[in-house]
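Extended Data, panel c. Modelled sequence:
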Amino acid sequence: MKLKLYTLLIAGAASLFISCGDDKKPTKEQRPAIAVSVNSPASEKGSTLSLSGKIEAVNNAKLSTRMMGYVDNINVEIGDKVRKGQLLVSINNSDLQAKLAQVNAKITEAQAAYNNAEKDYNRFRNLFEDNSASQKELDDMTANYEMAKARLEAAKQMKNEIQAQFAYVNIRAPFSGVITNKFVEEGDMANPGMPLVAMEAPGVFEVRATVPESEVSSIKEGTQVDVKIKTLDKTLKGTISEISSSAKNTGSQYPVKVSLEETGDEIRSGMYVSIDIPVERKTASERVLIPSAAVVHRGDLTGIYTISSQKTALLRWIRLGKNYGDQVEVLSGLNAEEEYIADAQGKLYNGAPVSKQ
C-alpha cells in the first residue's frame, strides 16, 4: 500500500514539472525594442555657450525725488504714453513756496541797500577826485558798496537754489515713452530716493545676462549671437555690445548686454530668453555638456542612460557640475566621445532592449 502511494506521488510531481516547463517566459528577443535617439556630448560642447537672460528697454528709468512731502497729484496711469518734459507727479511744495517768498523779500532788501551803497560810493568818489573827501572816507564807502553787492548776489543765489528744488517736487518725464509702473498713490508720503513711477521707451530693447568667471574670457564684444524667446517660440539676432570688467557686486558673474538687431510689437520687457554665444575653446578645456532633460534622478543620485554592447539600456551614474542654460556639465561618468540616450519612445529601465532611430 505504501509503495503504491509513493509511486503515485512521484508520478504527480513529474507531471507538474513537465507542465511548468511548457510555460516558457518571454525571452529578451521576444520583448519589443524601445526606439531611442542618441547623442554625443562631443557634438554639443564644441562651440556654443548658453546663457539665460532677460529683455529690457534700452531707455528705462525709475523716477524719484530728493524732497520729502505728500504726493498731491499723479497725472499718469500705467500704460500711458508721455512726452519728454511732461509733468508726471506733483509733491506738496508749500514749504518751498514759503522759502521762496522769504528769499524774494531778502532780494528786495538787498537790492535797496545795494542801490543806496552804489550812490554813496559814486558821490564820495567824485568828492575824492575834487579833494573834498579823504582816502579813508572813500575806502569806507567802497567797502560798504562791495558788501552790499555781495549780499545781493547771495540772495539771488539762494533763490536759484530754491527754484532748483522745485524740479524735485514736480517730476517730469526725462524722455518720451510709456509708463510701466506706479509705486505711490495720491496722499502718500514721498521720501528722498523712493521710486515714484517707472517708464521706458518702447521699440528699442536689449538683453541683459551674466557670464560666469570661467567663461568671460571666451566671449568678445561684437560677437553675433542667437537670442531665443521661449514664450514666443522665436529666435532673434543680436550682438554683444557690452561686457563688464568687474564682478565685484555680482558674485563672480560678469554682466553682459546684447543689442537686438530687430524686434516686433510682441516683444515686451521682462521676457526671459536663452542666448547661444559661439565661443572658441581649447580641446583640453572643453566641457562635457548634456541636456538637463536627459538626466535621470534616483534620490540623491543622478545618471544617464547609455546603450550596452547587447543593445540594451544601461543606467550609468554620473556627477554633475554647473548648469548652462538648458544644459548641464558632466564632471565624471561620461566621456565626450560616448553616446547617451537623449530621448526614448517608451519607459527605459536597466536591460530594456533598445533600437537607435
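The helical segments are 2-22, 42-45, 94-129, 135-165. This feature is highlighted in the accompanying rendering.
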